Amino acid sequence: MTLDSLIDVLLSWRFILLAVFVSTALYAHFRGRTHQRFLREVFGPATLLAPINVPIYLSSAVPSTPFLDIDLIPGLRFLEQHWKELREEVERLYSQGGIRASDSYDDAGFNSFFRHGWKRFYLKWYGEPTPSAKELCPRTLELLAQVPAIKAAMFVRMAPKSRLPVHRDPFAGSLRFHLGLRTPNSEKCRITVDGQTYWWKDGEGVLFDETFLHRAENETDEDRLILFCDVERPLRTRAARAFNHFIGDTLMRAFRTKNVQGEEVGALSKTFAALYPIRVLGKRIKQYNRPLYFTLKYLLVAVVLYLIFWR
């Protein structure tokens, strides 16, 4: 290969696109103190969204730390002050069996959590509140409406003797807020974010960056009920905020799903449901022959990369 042809390759849009993807994926992977094996994350949603997330990280107006002061987000302290009203509605909903897993594979964002004893009731998700929330949780929606930074909210149950494995959420445009409503108030019911641990307490809020690696355990004999919110990450520039709003209004809204039949399901959640039989087949192959599963997986990825960057 001549020098001129090498320069042509390096300046081609495919090579530039590949370089941007690889560099942002590495930045996202090595951000923080704790990391998984790169090959375990390289094909995950957080890696695929790295080219979107890195510009958001670089424009962030809050510290790059696992846990953050809740006063950085106006209104979160207000929700803390009204936690008993929120608890009244979540306990009524819980007693009616309203906090539950999806009855189909149409919750692309949280489907993998259901087998770990994690249940939810959507209040809102990057758009209008769900119709069932308007009917069953009117006071909660009134309180949430006083906090414009909240883009998504749900009531979440974590069952006794359950745990969520180590993971990182894929979208950096939000931060995560938890408000304890009915918890074991015990160090045995906790979340660890990038190596730092917090345990939930009734009436206390915690704000953290969910794009760091984190895991949760409830080693007690009691349920944990919390208010779970995505709040908009503060960004320094108007352009970054506009970009973040666009991603939230398009990509994140497409993950919307239902509490009950008849409610809106976003395009990506519908696609996830349609493709889930392929995922089931992959799990069967992995159980039958792990080397074969990983060979097929990496071969498929190689074909996709070839079609995108070299064809």
Molecular structure report:
With 311 residues, this protein is an alpha+beta fold. The chain has 2 domains: 3-62 and 289-309, no CATH class; 67-268, B-lactam Antibiotic, Isopenicillin N Synthase, Chain (Jelly Rolls, Sandwich). It contains 12 helices and 10 strands. Helix 2 crosses helix 5. The mean pLDDT is 91.
Strand segment tally? 10
Structural class: alpha+beta
- Domain count, please report it: 2
- Give the rounded overall mean pLDDT: 91
Task: Give a short synopsis of this structure.
The protein is an alpha+beta fold and 311 residues long. 43% of the residues lie in helices and 20% in strands.
Descriptive terms for the model:
311 residues, alpha+beta, Jelly Rolls, 2 domains, six-stranded antiparallel β-sheet, four-stranded antiparallel β-sheet, 10 strands, globular
Spell out the blueprint of helices and strands:
Blueprint: H1 3-10, H2 13-30, H3 38-41, H4 45-48, H5 50-59, E1 67-68, H6 76-81, H7 83-95, E2 118-125, H8 131-136, H9 138-144, E3 150-158, E4 162-167, E5 174-182, E6 189-193, E7 196-199, E8 205-208, E9 214-218, E10 224-232, H10 238-252, H11 267-288, H12 290-309
Antiparallel strand pairs: 1-8, 2-3, 3-10, 4-9, 5-8, 5-10, 6-7, 6-9
Helix pairs in contact: 2-5, 11-12
